[in-house]
Sequence to fold (302 residues):
Amino acid sequence: MMLSASEKLTFPPEIVDLIVSEIWSSTMSSKDRTHFMTTCPLINSVWQDVYATHSSRDVYIPTANYLQSYLCVIIQSQKSAIYGSRLPSSVRTMTCYVDLTRMDEEAAKDAYVLLTNLPNFVGFRACFASLQRLSFNLQFPACYILGISGVINTSLCIFLDPDRNITVHRADFHVEVPSHAPRLQVPVIDNIVRAMSSGCKTTLDPIMMIQSEKIVDGGTKRYFHASAPWSERRGDLHYYLNYSLWRAVAMPNSSHRTLLEPVSSLVWRLLLQQSLPVNHPYQWELKSDFVPWGYITGQMAV
Fold:
């Protein structure tokens, strides 16, 4: 008797949970993760339920449209064959990972630039009340900055305070370089940090990061880390991502949605944005043509 594909993959839920958890927390390119996201729920109901549990708690953002054109829509409609009623209350972390050693990561790169350039997280905190951390992870060839073989791995983690009145958050910067890399100097650290934050100026002290150096992974990598404040300021990007997220929970789908749109826009501008500073002295607005990873084509962004 021939078994269907779904019957062949009917493992105990505990085994499925281990498999999905391992895959979901692993480092994958946006293309590979998108493939997993679109195929895993189709195996059978067990895989779909386990996938929904993990992916709704630790959200990975593979493209710029994933939040605005997918999550916002299902949160606003509360209709999802995969997530049911899990979203948005289940979300604890959000991660955007870009592997610049691959040539098919343009979609993930756009998402990274969009998210790290957001002036504030008002929409995120309104939509995802339990969101604790935003992580932005990069991997790129070391030759572009250090002129050596191997890769550089970076991680920028912004921890959101549960008190929505607090607009200055802790940001942790992590950098791993090959052990054979030359000693890192302040200009090199500045370039790496600027790439991590898509050009946003921070209060990070490069000296502190240099002094934190230690050898990890059996002597194959050198690791650096430091923390700095990450301040919110007034505004939104032209994508209106923050506003879209806030509106997804403030204005559920209804027959009165069109009539309420002007009211919601007024509330957004007067109540949620006015409490934020116009700008922060340690950050600047990016020009629309700024390319934070110009060194992909051999030219460092300066």
Summary: The two ends are 65 Å apart (CA to CA). The CA atoms of residues 68 and 244 lie 7 Å apart. The chain has a mean pLDDT of 83. Residues 13-231 form one domain.
